[in-house]
Amino acid sequence: MAEPKLDKIKFKNPHDRLFCEIYGERRNCMDLFELALTDDEFNAFDWRTLRALPTVHFMPDSSEKQMDLLYSVKSKRTGADCKMVFMLEHKSWQDAKLMVQLLEYQTAVYRKQMIPILPILIYHGRGSEWPYNLEFHQNLASDSPEMIEIFGRQVLNFIVRCVNLRRPQVQRQIMERKLETRLILYIFDRIWDANLDTVDELLRMGQELDDTRRKVLIGKAVDYICRVRPEITREKIMEVEREILPQEVLTSPFLEGTLEDKMQEGLKRGHEQGLKQGLKQGLEQGHEQGHEQGLERGAEQKARNMAQIMLQNNEPIDKICSYTGLSSGTVRELSR
Question: How far apart are CA 287 and CA 193, in angstroms?
Fold first, then answer.
């Protein structure tokens, strides 16, 4: 069963969306395994066999809860049939019910397949430390230690591995290893107190990546910043970008990732302006004639707004003409 497309998944918040969009790709997820596993553990696996598992195969679409990410990988040492499942759970807040949630998720996997599972928590909440015990035994009722001492391993238990992105030593490790998604891991850490200096550092970090990776990762990071910290507008980010990046490597179309949003915004503005003009004309010359003229002017204004947005993002004139229906002469006039 194939994993559903991310644009059809309902994310509860922009933190989860960014996490799943980035680390739902195997290449990117390797960064998390480098952080979560020791060198010996990491080297025990044949990472060429890493596969994403469809979470909806284990939890139905109708369920209010959904796992974030599941990956399986084969061992180097014990043959092709020996696999491990990594259950990646992302938290941008301190959830007291995490252990019960992970127990439920593991049970759902075991119903389908009895295979070893290592749950891994990726945390970057406002609090710098995860406040709850990550061993299941330690979350049981207060009189449980006596029973656990008597029955020991016969009482169900599991321990969650934690990657706390708020810890300075983790951020140092990320930078020292030059992980490919380091700018995403950086913004997860800094999002709660992000400002234009944060944006500056993010963009400079992106210069170390190849052009394609830089545009994709910065595009998603910028969209995330604008959703979580709306006071940091795209216009302000573009000003910072122009100050520190050469013209030929400007990322705007992170601008690519959000171009559709900007086009929709332009269309909306044009539509509103057209309706206003049509209403005014209708009052002067009659409702019907004004309505028609308003719609015509609104359509023209929408096309001009879209063209201006595309020009800002350095789109070619023939593409702009194709999208908007404007003539090349009109588009060149708008570009002056």
Answer: 52
Distance CA 257, CA 237 (A): 14
Alpha helix segments (H runs only) across 115-247 = 144-151, 168-176, 182-190, 196-206, 211-228, 234-244
pLDDT tens by residue, 307-316:
777 777 667 7
Amino acid identity at 280? K
Handedness of CA 188, 192, 194, 198 (dihedral sign): negative
User: Distance between CA atoms of 54 and 60, rounded to whole angstroms?
Assistant: 11
What is the per-residue DSSP string for 60-101? -TT-S---SEEEEEEESSS-TT-EEEEEEEEESS--TTHHHH
Q: What is the pTM of this model?
A: 0.71
Evaluated on CA atoms 133, 134, 135, 137, the torsion sign reads positive
3-state DSSP assignment of residue 314: coil
Q: Encode pLDDT of 169-195 as tens digits.
A: 999 999 999 999 999 999 999 999 999
Closest CA to 305 of 331, 336, 276: 331
Query: How do residues 49-64 score in pLDDT, each as one tens digit?
Result: 999 998 877 876 545 6
Element (H, E) at 33: helix 26-36
Half-sphere exposure of 286 (CA within 13 A, CB side): 3
DSSP reduced 3-state for 46: strand
